[in-house]
Amino acid sequence: MLGKRGLVLICLGLVLLMVLSLNGFAQEKKWLLPPEKADVNWAAYKGTTLTIGLNKHPYTESLRPLIPQFEELTGIEVAYVILPEEEFFEKLLIDLSSGAGLFDIYMTSPMFEWRYQYAGWVEDLLPYYNNPKLTDKEWYNREDFFPLVLRANEWDGTIGGGMGEGRWNGIPVMVEFFVQAYREDLRKKWGLIVPKDYPEWYDVVTKADEQGGADFFGIVERGIRSWSTVHSGYYTGFNSWGQKELTKDLYASIDTPKAIEFTKIWVKALQDAGVPGWPTYTWYDGMESYAAGRIYMYNDCDFFAATYENPAKSTIAGKSGYALPPAGPDGRIASNLWTWALGMSALSRHKEAAWLFLQWATSYHSMIDATVKHDNFNPTRKSIWEHPDVANMVKNWGAYPGQYAENVNLMLTKYGDIRWTPNPDVTAVGDIWCDALHEAYARQKTVEQALKDSTRGINRVMRKWRIALGIEK
After folding, report:
1. Helix, strand and coil percent figures for the chain, each rounded to 5
2. Which domain holds residue 329?
3. Are 250 and 160 in contact (CB under 8 A)?
4. Burial class (CB within 10 angstroms; exposed 0-12, middle 13-18, buried 19+) of 443
5. 11: pLDDT confidence band, cut at 50, 70 and 90?
6. Are 173 and 341 in contact (CB under 8 A)?
7. Which runs of E-coded beta strand occur in 271-414?
8. Is the per-residue pLDDT at 12 higher than 50?
9. Would 11 be classed as within a structural domain?
10. What are phi and psi of 291, to 5 degrees?
11. Is there a single domain that holds both residue 52 and residue 63?
12. Following CA atoms 188, 194, 199, 203 in sequence, which dihedral angle do they give, to the nearest 10 degrees?
């Protein structure tokens, strides 16, 4: 039998074991703690003013209410400028290219980072992340980001490759993939199927257009004369048909037989079942039209579901289904990916203070508030998706419980990726390509002729890179 001393020793041992276990748990879960608990001197740059350039976007609306928390934590004042997307990119380009340095931090994305990096306009974030005087790595928990999304904002500068390597240009704050959003209630009513390929898709949207009446349309898609029109649903389908916009030697390949075949289906669907005035539609116009109940299907960002399912913003809450994009002829599904990120201007005069903002804004603590309280979808940290409040928010989005989250998971793990070929002129390539869609839609040219003409334009733009790499003299 144990004596009194033995019992005391056992009890002390159990207490010690519990303390060690609790300490280990606290260390393991340090990233769950509020910013005040991080080993960061948040007040080191008190009195500084930061200016942030923001696109008019749901992420921006989720960040704005949180900024006073950062100002109170750090004593740093934050000013921000919010502009519509096209104007935002134009003003940001002027600020960077002129050397004005108005913005310390700005919203960015891989397609723009490639240009900014090559021009020396975006700061590499790795030195700040690796500086123990500025960053508490254990609290920040960089490994919590989905690898696919994190690598999208890393590039080593190799024209045509190098994704996921080299510099860290931006911290992803939301990610979007391109899916089919459709009216599940009308699908059942009209006896339609969820399209599994593009011929089926054309058949479904034209039937829906016929059933819907005078002010109802089978589809809406982005249409403005911009690379962004190519980037979403169209480019996802183009890739699902096994196509790339550039060859390995950086020659345009948008006019292959398969590319022409797919584009004919896409353009004909716009002509036969799309909204009038398609060439004027932005992503925002499309989202609003679908949420207003005027559209059967919209092939675009999955995160638009946060608007569609919100009764305060949508007349069709609870009536949508969400499906993977239609497959190509060989069954391939290959969604394009877009991630909005926060980056630091190389022209900033307050880089350490800017890093503190980036670290705070992209931490677990800020992202869970942005998502649960202010609808930041899709969040880029795994832990946010695992949070019960987030799981509960999205569980009923779709034609059946869990449909929305199921699609996002498949995109993050199987079907989604950056599909564009990395190069500083990628948006110029997209702009020229969009000209072909506009000309074919307006019946000014055949699809084949429009794509061939744009191919020549893209080849002229890319020639300097072929020369630089010794591909062409």
Report:
1. 55, 15, 30
2. 177-336+417-468
3. yes
4. exposed
5. very low
6. yes
7. 295-301, 320-323, 335-344
8. no
9. no
10. -65, -25
11. yes
12. 10
Considering 361, 378, 407, which residue would you say is the last residue of a domain? 407
Tokens of 382: 């795994």
The answer to whether the CB of 345 falls within 8 A of the CB of 97 is no
Q: What CA–CA distance (Å, rounded) separates 125 from 133? A: 14
The residues with which 182 forms a beta bridge, in sequence order, are 297, 321
Encoded amino acid at 366, one letter: S
- Report the CATH number at residue 343: 3.40.190.10
The type of residue at 24 is G
Tally of domains within the chain: 2
- pLDDT tens, position by position, 391-430: 999 999 999 999 999 999 999 999 999 999 999 999 999 9
Classify residue 132 as exposed, middle or buried by CB count within 10 Å of its CB (0-12, 13-18, 19+): exposed
Note every long-range contact of 128-136, with CB atoms under 8 Å and residues 24 or more positions apart, other chains counting.
128/344, 128/351, 128/352, 128/355, 128/358, 129/168, 133/41, 134/40, 134/352, 134/355, 134/356, 134/359, 135/40, 135/355, 135/359, 136/30, 136/38, 136/39, 136/40
Q: Is residue 15 part of a domain?
A: no
Assess whether pLDDT exceeds 60 at residue 1: no
Q: What is the DSSP string of 42-56?
A: GGGGTT-EEEEEEES
State the pTM of this model.
0.91
Q: What is the pLDDT of residue 3?
A: 54
Q: CA–CA separation, 455 vs 25, rounded Å? A: 58
Q: Is residue 21 part of a domain?
A: no
- Nearest to residue 344, comparing CAs of 127, 63, 129, 106? 106
Q: Are 229 and 433 in contact (CB under 8 A)?
A: no
Smallest Cα–Cα separation from 342: which of 38, 104, 138, 101?
104
Burial 174-194 (b: 16+ CB within 10 A, else e): bbbbbbbbbbbebbeeeebeb
pLDDT value for 13:
43
